[in-house]
From TrEMBL:
Domain named HTH luxR-type: residues: 142-207
Keyword Nucleotide-binding annotated: no
Modification type 4-aspartylphosphate: residues: 55
Name of this protein: Response regulator transcription factor
UniProt xrefs under SMART domains: HTH_LUXR, REC
Species whose genome carries this gene: Croceibacterium selenioxidans
Domain Response regulatory stretches: 4-120
CDD domains: LuxR_C_like, REC_NarL-like
Keywords: DNA-binding, Phosphoprotein
UniProt key word Nucleotide-binding: no
Gene3D superfamilies membership: 3.40.50.2300
One Pfam family it belongs to: GerE
Length: 212
């Protein structure tokens, strides 16, 4: 079954190029392509595509704001960012909201289809060079501290990295929301961090988003 896709970029020529690539590849149905961030968000809410490819920087509403809405409203859309450049802080924030793919425009024509096929298969496309932009405090014993997490704490951490709220994690695990909050507090204490963004960044950099 084909995966449905929505495309949004404020450069018409690039947008048309991506549309042509997808149409020629097979395996994907394009629900809409637009140069407007506001229309993209409206169509995401209305059409619920499997994948939304969004330009990070838009004149009206950017990809990060749309991703935040997708996460908050639990729309279940896999978001891929298309960007010329993105600072480390925004990469970290995107990770905390459950971004599925990061693709630079310089390599869009080479890796666009591979990226979408990877995301469609349920795997994230997160290039190392972009992840390295995430600013983390240097800590020689971080691996040792990660090793102190229990299996349940690791499970909760991975669900946090997928963008789930404490309530959603509790439902996923058949647990109480308060129990999840206690576990998360223990995770923060053990890793000496204070936010979901930092947790997501740590797990991505240490390749711990999937079970061994």
């Amino acid at each position: 079954m084909n995966r449905t896709v929505l495309l949004c970029d404020d450069h018409p020529l690039l947008l048309q190029g991506l549309v042509d690539l997808l149409r020629g590849a097979g395996g994907f149905d394009i629900l809409d392509s637009t140069t407007s961030g506001h229309r993209a968000l409206s169509q995401i809410r209305k059409l619920r595509p499997d994948i939304a490819v969004l330009d990070v920087s838009m004149p009206d509403i950017g990809g990060l704001d749309i991703l935040r809405a997708v996460h908050t409203e639990r729309l279940g859309v896999r978001v891929v960012f298309l960007t010329a450049t993105i600072p480390g802080k925004k990469v970290a924030e995107a990770l905390s909201y459950g971004i599925w793919g990061l693709l630079t425009k310089d390599y869009a024509t080479e890796h666009f289809l591979e990226c979408l096929q990877t995301v469609a298969a349920g795997e994230r496309w997160l290039p190392k060079n972009l992840l390295e932009k995430v600013e983390l405090e240097e800590d020689d014993d971080i691996s040792a501290r990660l090793a102190t997490l229990t299996l349940r704490e690791l499970e909760i951490s991975r669900l946090v990295c997928r963008g789930l709220s404490n309530r959603s994690i509790a439902a996923e695990l058949g647990s109480a929301e308060g129990t999840v909050s206690i576990h998360l507090g223990n995770i923060y204490r053990k890793l000496d961090i204070s936010s979901r963004t930092m947790l997501a960044s740590l797990f991505v950099q240490h390749h711990m988003l999937t079970d061994d």
